[in-house]
Amino acid sequence: MAAGGFPKAFWWGAATASYQVEGAASEDGRKPSVWDTFSHTPGDTGDVADDHYHRFKDDVKLMADLGIKHYRFSIAWPRIVPDGRGAVSEAGVDFYKRLVDELLAHGITPHATLLHWDSPQALEDKYGSWRSREMAKDFADYTTATVTRLGDRIKYWMTINEIFCFTYMGYGVGKVPQHAPGTVVQKRKGGDRRMAYWSQASAHGCPRHHNFAARSCWTEERAELLPAESLQQAVSRCLRTVERGRHPRTQRVATTRKTARASRRPRGARRACRGGKIWAGRRRREGL
Predict the structure, then answer these.
(1) Residue 269: burial class (beta carbons within 10 Å; 0-12, 13-18, 19+)
(2) What is the CATH T-level fold of the domain 14-255, as seen in this structure?
């Protein structure tokens, strides 16, 4: 593949998600994720998937034969902490140890994602998972348990993959949404039909969970992460961006009544309006 326009130090690689490839949905103590539940009601499931759990050695050899040097995979939270909180399944941890050892033996650098949508169903049942602030502590505890056990092998960590896909796309008003957890709500809040739930889970939840998880990695001193000050700034920027509804797919969605009103004003009035408080008419009356 031509790499024109990319710097020489750019890392090319391959990536997967745990539920997409692992299979072994109930082996070695693993319990259901929200995607297990969602895909069974009804649809194609990841119960077997690519059977990566049993065939990872063959899969790694194929990657090596293709010349892949970097591999990003995700770790299944329900495989490490089956109930979402509490006891750790060492059998589940052992699978990832064997996978990473195999990658390293073939000269492939592992990159681990702590969550690629498949959060434990137990926490969705208990308190609504990402809609509750309890999720932040449970996610941080899971992160600590994982990094403590795998940090001697894995140098590069990612916390949460594509927040939009399991928040905004995971909730629907009066109909089943596209993604897990597949929660159906009966009434809307605010302007857009689902924006309120996306905002609740994303703006006030996931950046906090990312912050807690990243700090758990950083304090283990096993992974290359940003310094604490830079991490705080990055999370703050992420939070501000999500709160303002600036996700690429939601740029045109008014998240509050004030911004909805502003979007209907004439362009000149919008320019003259600062923070929704100063109207063009007032500016004209005061001779501004």
Answers:
(1) middle
(2) TIM Barrel (3.20.20)
CB 115 within 8 A of CB 180: no
Alpha-carbon gap, residue 271 to 262, rounded angstroms: 10
The token pair at 47 is 């119960």
Report pLDDT digits (tens) over 2-28. Answer: 556 888 889 999 999 999 999 999 999
Reading the block at residue 136, the tokens are 């932040």
Q: Where are the domains of the chain?
A: 14-255
The single-letter DSSP state of residue 275 is: T
Question: How is the beta sheet containing 109-115 ordered, strand by strand?
Answer: 14-15, 70-74, 109-115, 156-160
114 phi, psi to nearest 5 deg:
-80, -25
For 208, left (φ over 0), alpha (ψ -120 to 50), or beta? alpha
Q: List pLDDT tens digits, range 220-260.
A: 444 444 343 443 343 334 334 434 444 444 343 333 444 44
Residue reference for tokens 């690519």: 50
CA distance 82 to 77: 7
The answer to whether residues 120 and 20 touch, using CB atoms and an 8 Å cutoff, is no
User: What's at 155, amino acid-wise?
Assistant: K
275: alpha, beta or left, given left = phi > 0 and alpha = psi -120 to 50?
Answer: left
> Which single residue is written with the structure tokens 């992974």?
223
Report the candidate in 129, 145, 148, 118 with the shortest Cα–Cα distance to residue 22.
Answer: 118
Q: pTM value?
A: 0.70
Peptide bond into 181 cis (omega under 30): yes
State both tokens at 278: 């100063």
Number of helices (H) and strands (E), helices first, in the chain? 14, 6
